Amino acid sequence: MADLAHYQRDLQKFNTSYLKEAVKEPINFWGLAGFAVAAAYSFSVIPLLIAIIAEIAYVMVVPNLPSYRALVQRREKERLLIAAKTAREKLIKSFTPREREAVEYLRWLKEKIQDNYRKFTGAGSLPSNLRTLDQRWEDFVDLLDVYRRRKQHLKSINRQAVHNQLSQAYRAAESATDEKTKRIQQTNVEILKRRIASFDEIEQSVKLVEGQLQSIENFFSYLNDEIVTMSTPEKFSLLDFEQLSDSIAMTKQMLDATADDMGQLDAYNRQMGNYELLPEGNR
User: Fold this and answer.
1) How far is the C-alpha of 219 from the C-alpha of 235, rounded, in Å?
2) What DSSP assignment string belongs to 9-57?
């Protein structure tokens, strides 16, 4: 029953969006304007009455047309793609010069690979696996952002100070003379142990992402070397893209698993005033 209600809410949401898009269409706006002008020149309300009837028919029919809905979905997809591209370019500008150099070199190499494929094979279009290089380059940018931020997070933490606090909490718990004080110190011990464990997990994730970034770079360089020696498109289809794709998916899954640890560090840096270490949207 709850699933049905959720489905109905989603359906109503989509229907509302189609209606809003239909109302904003230029043809609808200029049509209403035309009726308004006709009413003004004729000094009659008849054009306005016709406009109301036409508008009711318009909003009842057009938003429900499958072709119009497909048009709206295509527009929304294009809008999201442009927004994502703009956000990624903005993100790249926030990188250090060395990081931007790595990103731009890989972008240049990606385009060179695709151009060389057309040049050396004589093919008029790119195969599907080669078109995925655009996504792999985007993965590189996103992972590089994760890598640099997590590495900065680790640098912002004094691990030795946390270890010292843990030792003090252990001693305080052992020397506590009453149950209430002992329970408080034991809670403090558990919190500090979890902090240290989260440091280890984030440090491991940094090493994993670093390896993944190198893997993407090496794969692009390998492709560029291979394409130069290729004579037919069929040989290119033998190259394995799935392994890299699976590896990136695994890395992203691991990053999702450590997201809570990063949230704790974000809260810590916000508390300490280290706003430059926070994601841009959370500062």
Assistant:
1) 17
2) HHHHHHHHHHHHHHHT-HHHHHHHHHHHHHHHHHT-SHHHHHHHHHHHH
**Tokens found for residue 169:** 């909490």
Considering the chain, what is the average pLDDT of its residues? Answer: 77
- Tell me what pLDDT residue 280 has: 47
Cα–Cα dist 4/174, whole Å: 56
Residues 6+ apart with CB under 8 A from 17: 72
Q: Which residue has the higher pLDDT, 141 or 30?
A: 141
Cα separation of 153 and 176, whole Å?
34
134-154 pLDDT, tens digit per residue, is 889 999 998 898 888 888 877
Sign of the CA dihedral 218, 223, 228, 230? positive
Q: 75-102: string of b/e by CB count within 10 Å (b at 16+)?
A: eeeeeeeeeeeeebeeebeebeeebeeb
For residue 256, give Cα distances in angstroms to 84, 226, 249, 268, 276: 20, 34, 11, 19, 22
Distance CA(192)–CA(185), nearest Å, equals 10
Q: What is the pLDDT of residue 195?
A: 77
> Residues 6 or more apart from 234 whose CB is under 8 A from it?
none
pTM of the model: 0.65
